[in-house]
Amino acid sequence: MADNGEGAFLGSENHLSGLLTLTSRLIQDRLSVALRPLGVTYAQAAALVRLWRSPDGRMLQNDFVTSLALARPSGTLLLADLERAGLVARSPDPTDGRRQVITLTPRGRDLEASVFAVISGLQREIEEIAGGEDLATTMRVLTRVLSWLEPAVLAALPARDRDVYTR
């Protein structure tokens, strides 16, 4: 194989998309194992985090699904799983009955400290490996890339999350 000056791409770890994909999958796998005793999946926990971070534990369904970078059908399936588990409830928006509002249930609220302990624990492990400054830089860079790839995802996050990620 000729080297065209861009380096050889011998495997997925040799380019950004492959490295991000592998790292993300392995982090999700580790979190899934740690969340299992709490009775939630990684996808459910990620969704709950959006609601916990919202000012009142509520979000419009469209904003909720967009903030997770999910297609509408996938978001609808995830919401159905969360409802069946008794973690969220859907109701019509009082200002526009065509829209749905997603609200945490008491059971959904009760999981917050436990789920954040799992997520924070893994982040502390990563910080020990990468160092605090490099981790903070990585998060800022990934946030910039995210906002470039899909500005609506960042825009759908609660304001305090947007501020944290864009510093």
Could you describe the 3D structure shown?
The chain has nine helices and three strands; from the N terminus they run H-H-E-H-H-E-E-H-H-H-H-H. Strands 1-3-2 form a three-stranded antiparallel beta sheet. Helix 1 (16-35) crosses helix 6 (112-130) and helix 6 packs across helix 7. The mean pLDDT is 85. Helices cover 65% and strands 11% of the residues. The chain has helices at residues 16-35, 42-53, 61-67, 72-84, 106-110, 112-130, 132-149, 151-156, 159-166, and strands at 58-60, 88-93, 96-104. With 167 residues, the chain is mainly alpha-helical.
Short structural summary:
The protein is mainly α and 167 residues long. Helix content is 65%, strand content 11%. Helix 1 packs across helix 6 and helix 6 crosses helix 7.
